Amino acid sequence: MRRIALYLLLLLPAYVSAIEADYRIDPATSQATFQVRVLWLENVDGHFTQVIGDVVPGPRPDSWVVDATIAVNSVAMSSTHLREWVLARPFFDAGHHPVIHFVSDPIAQAQLDQGGTLTGYLTLRGVTAPIQFTVQPSHCESPVAVPCQILLSGRVHRSTFGMNSDRLALSDSVDLNLSITLQPESR
Predict the structure, then answer these.
(1) Domain assignment of residue 96, given as a range
(2) How many domains does the chain have?
């Protein structure tokens, strides 16, 4: 009897981590936006309508890892001409690089609740580089039973990802913001 009790105690951590919740990024209500300054006078804005992925428990208790993918072809712009321009080789090069991918370092639940910093790696145009986002405070119930929105804001440099064209007309700095709605994942 003692052996069975010891065996069950050894299995308890595996059981607890197996029942921890996973969340998916709801593609219908999540989006990524970007803004770049043109000719130091005005901004050009765009947004991606297809953001998918998961938020799964991290390696530490009460931590999470975000894994998000953005379909480059889902970009929406104020004009067809601008959309074609950002999809072309000098900018996103959607023909060769159809997705943008982000994987976060583990983030503590407290940083999601109170706001903080989310670090990780962004892959854009086949180049992976570190990125840092500011996380707005989100008061999501834990576990998330209803949709929960997480707002992230960050900045990337075009040159880091090989977008070196139009240097005189376009700022190297691009604001990147994500609005992610989480839904409980049933697996």
Answers:
(1) 21-184
(2) 1
Asked if the structure places residue 6 within a domain, the reply is: no
Task: Find tokens 């991606």 and name the residue.
Answer: 48
Half-sphere exposure of 66 (CA within 13 A, CB side): 32
Distance (Å) of CA 127 to CA 71, 97, 121, 178: 16, 10, 10, 20
Residue carrying structure tokens 């709605």: 181
pLDDT tens sequence for the chain (187 residues): 433 333 333 333 333 333 456 889 999 999 999 999 887 688 999 999 999 999 999 999 989 999 999 999 999 999 999 999 999 999 999 999 999 999 999 999 888 889 999 999 999 999 999 999 999 998 766 555 567 889 999 999 999 999 988 777 789 999 999 999 988 875 5
Question: Domain for residue 123, yes or no?
Answer: yes
Two structure tokens written together for 68: 């998000």
